[in-house]
Amino acid sequence: NHEKANNQIEKFYQIFKDMSFKISFADALILMPKFASILKALIGNIEKLSEMALTLLNEHRSTVLLKKLPEKLGDPCKFLIPCDFPGMAKCLALADLGASINLMPFSVWKRLSLPDLTPTCMTLELADRSISRLVGVAEDVYVKKIIP
Predict the structure, then answer these.
(1) In whole angstroms, what is the distance from residue 93 CA to residue 101 CA?
(2) What number of other Cβ atoms are within 10 A of residue 16's Cβ?
(3) 36, 38, 52, 71: which one has the fewest Cβ atoms less than 10 Å from its Cβ?
């Protein structure tokens, strides 16, 4: 158990050697409560502490240490964009967030009198784990985006 503690302290020395921060030592203790016992042992070895006092802290480690990480956001589920087509009261299109696939209800495709679709047997599993069977694929369809 003593050997395990020494290994942990040595690992902490190594990690601590790679970082530097511009806050008081007391603030560092407050921000790192899980390392309190290791820091106490470190204080007992002044030579190592002095050696590590001059190391620099990169931006990533500073952010983690000061708890300035951005808030994690949840999955937006379905992201729908309202579309305005002549002769249609309301239409929502599923926005593509990077998959290079854009979906449109087949009923909307037919009402817009767009070119024939190339048949496909492709299915898509959506974020909510539902399966959508595609009627066909359209390529090179001109889309005009108007951003308010």
Answers:
(1) 12
(2) 20
(3) 71
